[in-house]
């Protein structure tokens, strides 16, 4: 991405000229008559399919919520995609192209006349047609404003309560809105410090897009305003008609008898707030440099500076030569690599780091779980306390919960037409965004002037399709998580010249002692029918500097500093709207190259994938800063001019960005896979965990085999995806090496040998976590799965802790958890979340075991840890932990929770759609699979 002047890039200018006056005619204030929508030709020919469980309808009236709790009934279209999504677990083995719509929606444009369920006209210039099978809104406008108004109206119909929740999460006001449950407190405390803004800050972002992005920016904000107008129109109608979401009654916003109360109007700044939550969850990257510094110091303390650094780098694996890559043709895209000689690194003094306090002035139930139930009307008693554990259960959202880190998700499988049966490319792709009821995204089709697409949009920012299909192309994304966030050490000072302390609230900028800016949010709550949490309040406070938000205090070389977090997308939460506008515009995206240019306008860190009838393509988006020469992006840096981002302007949080050509990109590769793995050679990772074993290997091994065989179909590529979705990464990738170590000598203990045989049988059968038959709720190799789940944390500790020592082992596990199996409810994604095996110590264990076995290892660990490098000692350690694990009963391995009894293995893994409103859904079989997913193959092109 070139240095940002906030005007159209050259490619965009060329596209505008090619369009003639059409773009200007749709821009607000252009004066010319708005053009009629171009004729829509669906080039997919019924070969596009999609799915988004549990169902399209995410709103429920109070009566419908009561019916769900009392009788298990569901509002229409709130759960009709759930069984089809779940059915692929058993159905994938016999899948054919003809059977795909047994498990997916037909994603063709429009609705056949005999499939129309309803038609709504919120204005004369737009119709919302919903189909009988899934209730998806097909929005067709004769004007641009009408199209976007219809999108907002449909969003209100399907996600009004959810949008309201997320605008309050983004503003750090969830407890004041939905109740003071501990999980609500934790969620706003997790997200608000990542994007703390004043109302003026939010409005400034709106104006920046409108005034600095040319005609596209003006159109984007006009589209956003029309979208907001549509939401508000539905908001008003549903309130007057008393068919608004029942959660407003249960949280005390509206009286169920008198209808007195209000659903607050939506505005453009709400869209910025929602965008900050969505982007923070799925499009961030980098950060964590303070924890990285602590683990580096622990390594240096144990081994000395030189050797400790070498050991630490071998675990950091910034550019591991054995890592699975999306661009696998050897093309190099150097970024954020380790400098030959680092400059400006600001490591803390040992023991000096303290986290910055966030919460002040607690009253009442703040920080506690104290309840004070209200006297609920008899009719509402079944719903009393439904939000006592939080409107969004703790840990359900990526990047939330105790000790959580930002986790990218989603996968993509694309195959070139050279390897398909039809000669056209095929793609199976989609984002993993967790499982909620309703989902964070909603399906829709948009057809209007300059817009022609079907797919998903995050609720509240659905002016455009964010992932989906156009007339003759489809696109999707996975979280990329490259480093767009850095940590700076600002030198503290006192304005009167006295000696500063770690608590000082002034810092040096160009030699001047400058005051930090205090940002505050005071929240209070009282018990309601939905949330019985007793009355309470607190104040959140952060300090903002020219180098970002203060996260820690420490000393560096004896001098007090504040560590700050600075990300390039701060103050630019919604700038990506331009890229999404382009992706929806059939006159702009006409081929792979124009798609890549459109994706280049998206500022968050994503991997973007494209398929049409001729080719596939890939582009990595993100506001990658140009760093000063010699700066190590993996560690904290001194906040001095010499080490700043190049061209950095703190007032607008802009800088120079790496140009388009330096972002990993490709067209026409034989195949592409992505499961949040590394992008390309020399494109360094922003976190630990991108080594020789990654869940991306589950896709790469299968897709490469399909491509080599040839004749790939939509069904065969979907089967490969689903097979990977049911596979235990440890069983497929690590167990072969573990068994080699265990069997390096005969296992003489009969009982232990039987355990080894069980594990080997599971491995030979595919190492899957899959039930014996649909509905049995019992895994085929249940005991082997139980043993692996019990063994893995024990074997990792026995393999590494003795050699690393307690301090370094603890520091490294703080940077990267050892396990993220479906049963590891302590993992970063939380329990019942589907996504698994993204982060863990499997890459470390793989290299270490191969080193013990004397096998070749590229990019080895600096030392061999298992058994101190002795095969016999390593074997003894593994056998000892295996014997312990085999004896652990299921009730301890799977201790139970609010969804499962202790010992219920299938249930512990199972996906639970966490209710964000009053409607609950049944649990479904575990799948490590995108939440929204497309299967596409275009036979023709414009």
What percent of the residues sit in helical stretches (DSSP H or I)?
25-40%
Give the integer mean of the pLDDT values: 93
Computed over alpha carbons, the radius of gyration is 27 Å
User: Any low-confidence stretches, pLDDT <50, length ≥5?
Assistant: 1-33, 400-406
Strand content: 15-25%
Number of beta strands: 30
Number of helices: 24
Instruction: Profile the largest sheet.
Output: 10 strands, mixed
Q: Strand order, biggest sheet?
A: 3-4-5-12-13-14-15-23-24-26
Which class best fits the helix and strand makeup?
A: alpha+beta
Cα distance spanning the termini: 29 Å
Dominant shape:
globular
Structure commentary:
It is a single chain. The chain is of the alpha+beta class and 942 residues long. The strands form five sheets. A ten-stranded mixed β-sheet has the order 3-4-5-12-13-14-15-23-24-26, with helices on one face. Strands 7, 8, 16, 17, 18, 19, 20, 21, 22 and 25 form a ten-stranded mixed β-sheet that branches. Helix 8 packs across helix 11, helix 12 crosses helix 13 and helix 12 (289-303) crosses helix 20. The longest helix has 34 residues, at 782-815. The protein starts with 9 loop residues before the first helix and ends in a 6-residue tail after the last strand.
What descriptors fit this protein?
single chain, 17% strand, disordered N terminus, 942 residues, alpha+beta, ten-stranded mixed sheet, 32% helix, 30 strands
Which helices and strands, and how do they pair?
Elements (H helix, E strand, L loop, with lengths): L9 H10 L2 H5 L21 E4 L10 H10 L10 H10 L13 E2 L9 E8 L2 E6 L5 E5 L2 H27 L3 H5 L3 H10 L7 H14 L1 H28 L5 H4 L17 H15 L6 H15 L1 H12 L15 E4 L18 E2 L3 E6 L46 E5 L10 E5 L5 E2 L3 E8 L2 E8 L8 E3 L3 E7 L5 E9 L12 E4 L2 E4 L1 E9 L10 E10 L2 E9 L2 E9 L9 H7 L8 H8 L6 E7 L3 E6 L15 E2 L26 E3 L3 E4 L6 E3 L12 H14 L4 H12 L3 H14 L7 H15 L17 H34 L26 H12 L17 H16 L3 H4 L11 H5 L4 E2 L17 E4 L6
Parallel strand pairs: 5-12, 6-28, 11-29, 16-25
Antiparallel strand pairs: 1-2, 1-30, 3-4, 4-5, 7-21, 8-20, 9-10, 9-27, 10-30, 12-13, 13-14, 14-15, 15-23, 16-17, 16-22, 17-18, 19-20, 20-21, 21-22, 23-24, 24-26
Helix pairs in contact: 5-9, 5-11, 8-9, 8-11, 12-13, 12-20, 14-15, 16-17, 18-19, 18-21, 19-20, 20-22
